[in-house]
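Slide 14.
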Amino acid sequence: MTALALSGCMRRSAPVAVVQPQSDLDSLAYGQTYNPPPRVVASSGGAIGALRASFAASPRRAYGPGPAIYTAPMPAPMPVAYDAAYRLDAGDRLRIVVYGQEGLTNTYAIDAGGSITMPLIGAVRARGLTPAGLASEITGKLRNGYIREPSVAVEIEAYRPFFILGEVAAPGQYPYVPNMSVESAVAIAGGFSPRAKRDRVTLTHTDAGGSIRAVVPLGTPINPGDTVLVGERWF
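Slide 15: predicted structure.
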């Protein structure tokens, strides 16, 4: 009897069919519940094997499509506050676009005489004009026997340099960067020398009205063409 009982326990049970649902990838991808016919998976491990197969194949929790990912746009470069009223001078480099005229569209530098030279119309005075004023000047010259209705745009590609002198590591001429201050100009020139007077500097600004010189703190903004002079301390 014992042998018969043991032989009955050791017999392998018949395969058990377990219902296994399809994957819910369609619901994740399309936001809709997908109900396909169930698949039948044969498990040969008896009741325990069938239970394990059923547990492994249990349906996952269905989620609708996730919230849309919002990508914040890149911040636009901060415009220079004085661009519209900026007065051009020697050393400024301009991008001039004449719409529909590739031969005239180019980058032009204002020479020491304060002018630019363009095809067809030759020299055009730029010193003292705003970018819009120069565009109007070019338009008038092109309309005078060259192009019937020219459309011209002028933008500043690079500003004229600034100058820093006196007690800094590397005095000289440097490219101007918008929104510069006296302190950043000193940093570009390598910083103060050991003998520098660090609290105030002399700033010289020149425009159509003449030159202005003043002793200013380090946080004072500077403009293209300005000259910064760092003095020497006495003790």
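Speaker note: The two ends are 115 Å apart (CA to CA).
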